[in-house]
Amino acid sequence: MITQNKNNIKYLQFQNLSVHNNITHFSSTRVGGVSSGHLYSLNTGFTVHDNPKNVTNNLELLAKSIGFEKSHMVSPKQTHSKNIGIVKSGHDIFPDTDALVTNVPGICIFIRTADCVPILLFDPVEKVVAAIHSGWKSTIQKVAKHTVRIMQKEFGTNPKNIIAGIGPSIGPKVYEVGPEVIEIFYRSFGRNRNVTPINNSDKGLLNLWEVNKQILVDCGIPENQIEVAEMCTFSNPELFYSARRDKNKTGRLATGIVLK
Questions:
Q1: Per-residue pLDDT for 160 more than 90?
Q2: Which CATH entry fits the domain spanning 2-169+222-259: 1.10.10.10, 3.60.140.10, 3.40.50.720, 3.40.50.300?
């Protein structure tokens, strides 16, 4: 990923998406905002007991640094589902939704994370973008697959044209899960290398990056068009919020995309 610093706001961009001039995209860090204490400083979440004025200010700072209006930002109320919303205006509201798709220029669709996997999709042929929130529960439900299918059905997208980015999230060296979660992943994806057993334990290390990449490949997206950030939120406290590391007392990162 490419690190950008504008107006004291530090954010990240995928290399493969950055070559396309007709979109803007971002994955925020925690650097450059106004929130304080354990939420310092660029918290974008309203549900973590931050002052709402701070969150609004942070979103305005982020939007201004990247080059669009905060009033044009649309995000869903995430519930770890496979539900997908199609955004037609900047005033649309999406309860119980974990991915957004739009072909409307000027609207920034974004999702919030604090260890879960953020995924951005761009179809440069049909001019369609998507933002996906894929924690382990949504990964099991293959929310990314359902998003691609919506892009195909509603906008005529050919998966072979999609450019994808899998953003900063908890990494496979530290994401420890119990036997119940391991068994669910085995049933859904087979006994492959997505889970690394921990010696002398019934637990394992889960690789959500690889699972989501494989889901996208299985949808027909060429592997060489998928960029994986390989940046671990848990292991980089100076850059990222992490729900697991901070025992849920943490902020939220934002990952989004907009058609120009």
A1: yes
A2: 3.60.140.10
* pLDDT tens per residue across span 42-65: 999 999 999 999 999 999 999 999
pLDDT tens-place string over residues 180-197: 999 999 999 988 779 999
Report yes or no: 247 and 9 within 8 Å, Cβ to Cβ: no
Q: How many CB atoms lie within 10 A of CB 238?
A: 7
Region for 94 from its dihedrals, namely left if φ exceeds 0, alpha if ψ lies in -120 to 50, beta otherwise: beta
Contacts of 107 (CB under 8 A, 6+ apart): 72, 74, 87, 89, 90, 258, 259
Of the candidates 137, 140, 209, 199, the one whose C-alpha atom is nearest the C-alpha of residue 169 is 209
Sequence-ordered alpha helix ranges (H) in 92-200: 136-140, 143-155, 179-189
Mean pLDDT of 224-243: 98
Domain ranges in the chain are 2-169+222-259
Strand partners, 122: 129, 163
Residue with tokens 């919020």: 241
